[in-house]
């Protein structure tokens, strides 16, 4: 526990989530197009380990109510979060954005080729002034994914 008046520094983002209409279809996309293996699969959520970060795919509308957990090893309340399906009426989508990190611009090129070979819609490409590179793609729910190399930001 920190002895100063400030709490300890936050080290990284542990989880990020995307809300999806069809969890099985989306999970299959991330498995086949992005070579990810889930460590948790339920009707409500599929979770992927990405180093020190976890990508959560939540079934749209399944997270807006609080969940009370009371087992031998875990207990508490997970607060409701996220949108419900009414937000996406009339063909709207959330178009959330996320970026997966790779080391080099050459690795971005390899992913670009892999995505195209797998029929993934490429939305854009970017060469950054610090030497980094990105390829942007669309997932089954219209979210905008990015694979980016070092040199996008000063800190990466």
CATH topology descriptor of the largest domain: 2,3-Dihydroxybiphenyl 1,2-Dioxygenase, domain 1
Q: Regarding CATH, which class of the largest domain?
A: Alpha Beta
Largest sheet: 4 strands, mixed
Q: Helix/strand-derived class?
A: alpha+beta
The average pLDDT score comes to 92
Spatial order of the strands forming the largest sheet:
1-4-3-2
Tell me the overall shape.
Answer: globular
Radius of gyration: 18 Å
Helix content: 10-25%
Assembly state? single chain
By CATH, the architecture of the largest domain is named: Roll
* Number of E-type strands: 10
Strand coverage percent:
25-35%
User: Span from first to last CA?
Assistant: 29 Å
CATH level-4 homologous superfamily of the largest domain: 2,3-Dihydroxybiphenyl 1,2-Dioxygenase, domain 1
Count of domains: 2
Helix tally? 2
H/E series, N to C?
Answer: EHEEEEEEHEEE
Low-confidence stretches: none
